[in-house]
Write a structure and sequence with these properties.
heterotrimer; A alpha+beta; B alpha/beta; C alpha/beta; A: alpha+beta; 5-stranded antiparallel beta sheet; about 35% helix; about 30% strand; B: alpha/beta; 5-stranded mixed beta sheet; about 45% helix; globular
Chain lengths: ~140, ~110, ~120
């Protein structure tokens, strides 16, 4: 069984680096020869994860593990957490402040996008503790975008 | 149409002239990064008012043909564009105008 | 161009209708309202992908003629309510903003600004 994995740390408020991890992951997966449609999905999930940690949390980690037939992305952060998960998963719902919105983040599409581009998606959150997300993207025969 | 021709026809100002011989297949207008991440496709030109460095990551991830900002990009954005090889231009026209003109250029 | 013509050109669905078929001369496309505040002209149609109560209040503050929501986005109830209260016509098109701008531009619609005079800012 082929397993490739990487681990990244993200600091809350570090807007200057938003997207840096996504780019690294994309390059790594391209080098491994993963299908382009898979890489596109991973890019969205990881980008939104980065943006969320930076916009809302104190700090967090993004890890991915590639198995024979799927890639698993783990996103864990410490911070304010999400008080209303069902609202947060709704398109257009956002708790972003003006600064965040002004940059084009916080449009309320982050979590919905992550869920849409995952083949399996789980999210848990505790207020004043943080959020954990598990996204699985199949390498073959998953849903097309 | 090749990027170099689009740049010339639209009178764009060049901040990072990468991939100029690449073919441009369409356009995407928007300022919400999630929308671009979800909706844009490769080889499109992204027209936006966002000028901060995060636009470079988005363009690189989506393999967009280029970014055209409707205001002067930040210095750090240009640095990032060069580092990532993302084509970056700007225009004095509004997003509506430059989109309209690009749309016309790309029509068969 | 009449509002109804714009709707037809973009195969748009009416979200909030208008008594009169307004004549609209200019268009402005933006997702962020701070730019709209700086540049959009009264009487223009606002093309946007971000539809919130703030968008609608901005349109009202600037006397914009109408809002065209792009990318097939469904306006949330609170935004629709504000637009109804403020009497601002709203339509929705499935076209992405680029396509919507392109089609209107080709049909002769002009933008609010020809060029931004940097010295004035």
């Amino acid at each position: 069984m082929n397993v490739e994995s990487e681990h990244f740390s993200v600091t809350g408020g570090d807007f200057a680096r938003a997207g840096a991890i996504s780019i690294r992951v994309k390059k790594a997966l391209s080098n491994l020869g993963l299908p382009r449609c898979v890489i596109r999905k991973v890019a969205v999930v990881v980008f939104e994860a980065e943006a969320n940690i930076i916009s809302y949390a104190t700090e967090g980690e993004i890890n991915y593990i590639i198995s024979d037939d799927h890639i698993e992305i783990h996103i864990d952060d410490r911070g304010q957490g999400i008080p209303d998960l069902s609202m947060a998963l709704r398109e257009g719902y956002s708790t972003a402040d003006e600064v965040v919105r002004g940059m084009g983040f916080g449009a309320g599409m982050g979590l919905p996008n992550m869920r849409r581009y995952s083949d399996e998606f789980q999210i848990e959150s505790k207020v004043d503790q943080g959020t954990s997300i598990r996204s699985i993207i199949y390498l073959h025969g998953g849903e097309n975008e | 149409m090749k990027l170099v021709s689009v740049v010339k026809e639209l009178g764009l100002k060049t901040h990072c002239g990468a991939n100029l011989s690449d073919e441009v297949t369409g356009g995407y207008v928007g300022d919400l990064l999630s929308d671009v991440m979800a909706g844009a496709t490769e080889d499109q030109i992204w027209i936006t008012r966002q000028v901060h460095p995060n636009i470079i990551a988005v363009a690189a991830l989506k393999e967009l043909a280029a970014i055209v900002t409707v205001a002067e990009p930040e210095a750090e954005t240009v640095v990032k564009a060069e580092a990532e090889g993302v084509a970056l231009f700007s225009t004095d026209s509004s997003a509506f105008e430059v989109s309209g003109r690009l749309f016309k250029l790309l029509e068969p | 161009m009449k509002l109804s013509e714009i709707g037809a050109l973009l195969q748009a669905e009416v979200v909030i209708g208008c008594q009169d078929d307004l004549e609209i001369k200019t268009a402005f496309a933006v997702d962020l309202m701070s730019d709209a505040l700086a540049y959009a002209k009264p009487g223009c149609i606002l093309l946007t992908g971000l539809i919130t109560p703030q968008t609608v209040r901005t349109a009202y503050a600037l006397d914009l003629a109408a809002i065209m929501v792009c990318r097939g986005k469904v306006a949330p109830d609170d935004a629709v309510k504000v637009a109804e209260e403020l009497d601002i016509p709203m339509m929705r098109t499935s076209y992405i903003m680029f396509e919507a701008c392109g089609r209107l531009y080709q049909a002769g619609m002009v933008g609010c600004i020809e060029a931004v005079n940097r010295c004035e800012r």
